[in-house]
Amino acid sequence: MKVAHWMMLVRRMGLSKIHMSTARIVWASQMCTHCKERLQMSQAPEDNTESQSMTAADEQARYRKVMQNVPQPVVVVTTGIYNKETDIWLKRGITCSSFTSVALKPPIISFAIHMPSRIHDLLEKTKKFAVNVLAKNQVKYATHFASAAVEGTDQFEGIPHELNQEGVPVLRDTSAVLLCKSVSVNTVGDHSVWYGKVLHAYTNGAVLEPLLYYAKSFRSVGEELFMQAFEDTTLPFKDWDHVAHIRMAWNYIKENGKDKATPLIVQGIKNYNEQNKDQISRGYHETVTQFYIHMIADAVSRSDDTDSTFSDFIETNNLMDRQLLYEYYTDELINSDAAKLTFIVPNKKDLP
Q: What is the mean pLDDT of the chain?
């Protein structure tokens, strides 16, 4: 029952102010939690700047919490153009988790790109693109195209793809592909939102589970997808290489600090190894793990750029060198059973 209706009723009954106050208390005690929240919000002072600021922050946190439960399909948008002067195809791709269907008649889709972006500039020239819907086992493509393209390099080198008749690069073995032409683009905040008309749609003959993204943290899309696959033990074993080990530890350490990250790293590796025990040739190694945790944490602590990407991190540190471990340990010590089971300090030179 609404407040106005309740108070009208008690007035008709001839209740005193004391009785009316009592009636209001009884009514308030019987309200559902949702109604109480709405009443409190309606009675809150509107000119309280601090309260409004806190509310805005709370709403952002609530929004993120909601979006954690809303899976988004992960796509790689690609486009290309032929440069007659250099006789080279300029190809670009970018990972997007904001892809959605807008209309069916005609078929219109949209996606958003964080600005500034090289692919945005290229799309303005080509007006055509492919939306490559990634399969669950294509996390590597998602992380690759989530990194900024380096000027003068082929972003598609080593990536299985082909150019269609329109000169648009199409990734192989994805769940589906939509070939589109641009119909409009708008600027919304720090993103450009592109709308495209679907000219052709293709699905993979095999039934492939799509790659989904949940906004669980403040990581970038590429890092979130990688960590999501690692924690769910769905990261393809062929992608679980030295770089992936470093990437996983870097994410945990950057987000949690060394002390809190260490048990997450150790248990995460053990869980992943257990899930892939039929393919593991060498199991968990305590000394190697703790060595790289220390080296990565040291490198992170020496960096002044809190917004640096993983690509920036590995370019400025020599952690990709597989011989780094042997600058600190002899072969005999690092391959001993004791080093595998417990952490052993280096016997060639001290850790930084």
A: 82
CATH of range 72-203; options 3.40.50.1980, 2.40.160.50, 2.30.110.10, 1.10.260.40: 2.30.110.10
Look at the chain and count its residues.
352
Q: Where in the chain is the domain with CATH 2.30.110.10?
A: 72-203
Instruction: Tell me the backbone φ, ψ of residue 295, rounded to 5 degrees.
Output: -65, -40
| DSSP annotation of 1 | -
Question: CA-CA distance, 184 to 318, in Å (whole number)?
Answer: 44
The band of 148, judged by pLDDT with boundaries at 50, 70 and 90, is confident
Give pTM, 2 decimals. Answer: 0.60
Q: How far is CA 302 from CA 23, 131, 254, 305, in A?
A: 65, 39, 12, 9
Identity of the residue numbered 251: N
Task: Specify whether the CB–CB gap between 84 and 78 falls below 8 A.
Answer: no
- Strand 128-133's sheet: what is its strand order? 88-96, 75-83, 128-133, 176-188, 191-203, 107-114, 100-104
